[in-house]
Amino acid sequence: MRCLLAALLIFLSPCAFAATPQTTVLDVQNMTCPVCSITIREALKKVPGVIDAKVDYDHKTATVKFDAEKTNPPALVKATTNSGFPSTVRNGGAKKQ
């Protein structure tokens, strides 16, 4: 019984301490066509810690879900800027999910 309990604790421990994903919205500049959103999404997905990135061409935004222990909004801004699409964090910053 002790072995089962110990094994269960070892297995569940990483899950219990996993960071809560956060989401932030970036206002993205220089998007001139719908294909630009693909470039932005791929640039964001290359950032370690990014879980998901959705880019909205019509609203010129990128909504990014990320692990706050691995990355942060300034790193996301840097990724879009380095790919030719400067961005800023929308008011409110990152929000926990």
Distance between the termini: 36 Å
Provide the number of structural domains.
Answer: 1
N to C succession of SSEs = HEHEEHEE
**How does the overall form come out from the CA principal axes?**
elongated
The CATH top-level class label:
Alpha Beta
Tell me about the biggest sheet? 5 strands, antiparallel
The CATH topology comes to: Alpha-Beta Plaits
Question: What amount of the residues lies in strands?
Answer: 25-35%
Q: Tell me the CATH architecture.
A: 2-Layer Sandwich
Notes on the protein architecture:
With 97 residues, this protein is α+β, with helices and mostly antiparallel strands. It has three helices and five strands. It has a single domain (19-96), classed as Alpha-Beta Plaits. Strand 2 and strand 3 (61-66) form a beta hairpin. The radius of gyration is 17 Å and the shape is elongated. The N and C termini lie far apart (36 Å). The model has no long low-confidence stretch (mean pLDDT 87).
